[in-house]
Amino acid sequence: MHHVSSDEPSLPEAEARRLSQLRRTSLLDTAPDPAFDRLVALVADVFDVPVAVVSLVDADRVWFKASVGLTVREGPRDGAFCNLAIGGEGLFEVPDAADDPRFAGSAMVCATPGIRFYAGLPLRPVDGQAIGTLCILDTAPRRLSAREAARLDSFARQAEVLIRHHLATLKADSEHEALLRTIAREQALLNRAAVGIIRITSKGIIEQVNPFALQILGYAADELIGRNVRMIMPQRWAEHHDEYLDSYLKGRPPSVIGIGREAQALHRSGRTIPVHLAVSEVVTPGQEGVEFIGILSDLSELHHARGREQAQHRLLQVLHRGMTDFAALMSSDQLWLFLKQALRTLTESDYALIGEVVPVDGKPGLKIHAITDLSWNDDSRRLMERLSSGDMMLTNPDSMLGRVFAGGEVVMTNDLGRETRRTGFPHGHPPLLNYLGVPIIDQGQVIGMYAIANSRHEVDAELLAWLEPFTATCALLINLYRRINEQARFTRELEAAHARQAQASRAKTEFLSSMSHELRTPMNSIIGFSQLLLNNRRQPLPERQAGQVAQILKSGQHLLTLINDILDLSRIEAGGLAFSIEPVEVAAVVEESVGTVSALAGERGIEIRLPPPSASRPRVMADFTRSKQVLINFLSNAIKYNRVGGRVEVAWGNGDEGRLRVEVHDTGIGVPAERLGELFQPFNRIGAEHSVIEGAGVGLALTKQLVEKMSGRVGARSTEGQGSCFWFELPLAADEVSHRGPDDPVAGALAGGGGEAGRRRVLYVEDNPANQRLMSDIFEDLDDCALSLAHEAALGIELARAERPALILMDINLPGIDGYAALAILKADPATRDIPVVALSANAMPADVERGLAAGFADYLVKPLDFTRLHKVLAYHLGGATHA
């Protein structure tokens, strides 16, 4: 492989890697380390020098990790001994700095401390990158003996060991912290989850149960673990549970696992609890058998609300509006109740509440998610129910609660009776002794609050600080609660979109059914009466008219075949078309197809030219009807999109990989180069939908499917305003392949003129039109090179197989198949594997170039394009200089 530019990294790149390695050690500007300090002290003592240093060479300074004899921690890099020491492989020694022109003028030499001698070794602890030195300095000239040099090298290696030990310690600390965080998160998820979580074996034995599940079921952990999960099920389900679990493991479709539904659980007291149950199967790698995790959400409050429907119909209407389509997330109510109870337990308080701040008429209001019942009569009980349901918002910013949720203030008092800023309590209100209200803040915004009252302890700053993790957890859960609501909204919109899509699909099916009926009815008459006329023995038709009616019948039958295939889109999309693959004469297909479209050509004055008669009549392995359908489509398009009095030429000859290619050339309007890739897309007429030319835009898409089903290929090339060439290739019959060669008369039917003879072709695969124009302009000045363009990799691969260019220039970031995938396809194809492919990309980092060359690109050019570099690459790969 040839690469014009040097493979050696430039000095700035090497320095960047060195500095990157230095940063990864995390040693710069760190506190003194006794291990390093002891090392330099030992070095100074062993070599009897006043100064010994472990230095780190930064971008513009030399920083001293440890030193003896220096009072500063760093110095400038420019002119420093260590700056030169890191550039070598071994000992860097300056016997007498006063006589060395590199250092004679240095302040360290000319002034205090008057350094005359320096010896240092580069430190390369990781990947061979020199990040600093171990060095000794003296105020008198000297030279190290070989033994001293070896000893200094040993100390340098010890310094590298200390650096590697430092790195290993950092990594171990990081991994340990990550492990602790993971354990803490998993434990918090299990213990603080606002749903019941139960893990069972494939035999139904309970292995783990979280606190919330114990709270729902009324058990202690040791009463459940090791027992069969049947014990928490009502009898009618418990007696069949083992049978159900066994049949599921044998392949029976699930009714709960992976689905979720409402069910009932059995409380320790014997009462049943309505729950939402979701069960997931868990397969642990390396562990025999499977486990199941059940998620229990207590629906007691929902069922209780349903039971009170008649007695409190008006209130339940309000509650129902707040819970529309919310049944699946009612576990959120249990979440807030759990946190409220946890807050009471943690602070040993009689009362607690947790609420979320929501906007009310542009001002903050408090929606209470959970609150301890403070009611003392019917009126207060109804008020509490409205607060608990979220139907009533609190908006007074001057109350004890309002100062928290509206003002963001922490409110605490140990004598609420003497608090002058509180509102009065009505007669019968339970006494409140102390009070703590804490805002829940996220990114500087109050999003909720919680409060406690009648704590067994004084409320103070220490309690507030102790509750900070709880406050942070509440902020996280409120954000999660909001995201769940947003997800529910998105799900509803998605379901609506799916419903609209289903309706559109039904409409399409109804349309196709209707169209099938409307088209088949007249076709039935056309074909039927044609057959009657031809088979009428009493009044036989004259020969000329019989031929005309036979043509009508043939065309009608072919049109009926097209109608059957096109209208039955579901069958086409499912690949259900029937094919009869057998040896087919291409000439026969061409003759019948031309006969079918000749009348259409005559109407428009289009001349259809065929190859001269030849004794050679090649055969392909194909379905005769489908092949004719393909060719008729190409011919019809060539006529419809041609100019009046234009020309259509049909030719065939050898294709790639034992195939025969059939081409249809026209002198029509052509297709813009940037839209060639859209030609074979269904219902895409490339702008012709606004013209008077009839068509539905399915012909070419159907043609492509038909050809590919017959193990063939289709393609097209076009020049806008001059005409197009559509082609398809089909496998040659077995007895044809061995008899065809480059000199076969059929093979010459596709040979072009000599306009580009002797010019070496270069293929440029690039999706950006501006870049295409630039490259076209460049090649306009190259007399001995011809340029082909492809706007996507798939088209480029086809052109490479068809044209066999001398060189391919390939963009990397292409739509669909990128440059790397295209390169792999080209290298895997025997027809293109020897064509050199040069990358041309805006990905210009050294790593990008290295990756491209390693992938197999023959060279790598970067954008903006260097013309001189391009010409060198062309000259190298095309075998000589390119001439303008």
Structure, described:
This protein is an alpha+beta fold and 884 residues long. 42% of the residues lie in helices and 20% in strands. Strand 2 and strand 3 form a beta hairpin. Helix 18 packs parallel to helix 19 (624-640) and helix 23 runs parallel beside helix 24 (819-828). The chain starts with 10 loop residues before the first helix and ends in a 6-residue tail after the last helix.
Key features of this structure:
single chain; about 900 residues; alpha+beta; six-stranded antiparallel beta sheet; 26 helices; 28 strands; flat; disordered N terminus
Give average pLDDT, whole number. 80
| Main pleated sheet | 6 strands, antiparallel
Count every helix, treating DSSP H or I runs of 4 or more residues as helices: 26
CA distance, first residue to last residue: 27 Å
Would you identify the regions where 5 or more consecutive residues have pLDDT less than 50? 1-9, 310-330, 738-757
